[in-house]
Amino acid sequence: MTIWGGVTICTVAVHSYQGLLVQRFFLGFAEASVSPAFNLVTAMWYRRKEHPLRIAIWYSSTGLGTLVGAMLLYAIGKIDGALEAWRYQFMIIGCVTSVWGIAIWFILPSNPMTARFLTPELRKVAIMRIANEQIGIENKKVKKEQVREALRDPKAWAYVAITFFIMLTNGALTGFGTIITQSFGFSEIKTILLIGVVGAVGFVALLSFGIISVFIPNMRIYIGTFACLPVIAGAAMVWRANWAAAKIVPLWGMYLMGFFPAVYVMTLSLATANTAGHTKKAVTAGMIWASYCISNGVAPLLVFASERSDQYPTTFKIVIAGSTVSGAILVALRGYLMWENKRRDRVHPVDESEVVASALLDRTDGENLNFRYQM
Predict the structure, then answer these.
(1) What is the model's pTM?
(2) Which domains, from first to last, does the chain contain?
(3) What is the pLDDT of residues 275-295, one digit of tens each?
């Protein structure tokens, strides 16, 4: 986080396209560790049924950032200084991020055993409540057999595929959302404020779905599949609406597409809850984040300026197709998890004495036949 903030500040010194490419490479390089790290920290602190809401809470900051960020960037854009307004934006945001990264180094414990705000007795309680979840505890040793299992696990590749296809929406919404919204007929300044509402939609959707998943068990896949529907509807509205006649219709379509982060968060919570073994969890989180990055790299290439008069048909066809495929994979994944749980019930019914004995062992979900998958 600290390095990412520093690289962000370096944008101020960029004066060429080539320089921006280099700067953006290191920006992505620094950012790549954040989401997998948050996944691992979540798994070390919270029980599996608590994961969806906790992940939704920290990931909802992306929606809140879009909302608050739009207003903040609007305000910074009014600075009348020696530099262009956009350079002040990167300078201020980068500095704040670096300072917060340093603060996190001291504030956020790596695991319950190093939490200064817990007494020794409460640290043991925190460890045991996670140990009984059978997902393993932190282990500094990289286990090759767990790496191999992660790469062979069909669940892991399902998470990768869902992430890739749903994140194609990011190209239309986050990368080019302002440009597309301005095409509806809004002014540049008003567009910046209007696009912030997309963040508000994502923020409310994530917290609402997170709360539902806590109180109603095994709802992750249902929620993820349902969240694909407004994305599909929103993309269709933007693509097929008459922008000249009623610009509010495509604007609402943009807002509906703001549901797409809910699909990603439910996928993250599935991966965190259903992956045991510290090395396997780390590798799986890395695979998902790599898919996230690749999709976000591909998505902007699917928005063609030449299609503006036709209302970007390629872009929104791909969003519709990607969301549909994500929903289909989620449905198939639920079927697979149900089948696997029933198979384990037949060949190895849960033995509570084994569960207690293996609670603190760093075993994968594939090795531990007492492990049951959540949906």
Answers:
(1) 0.86
(2) 145-375 (1.20.1250.20)
(3) 988 899 889 988 998 999 899
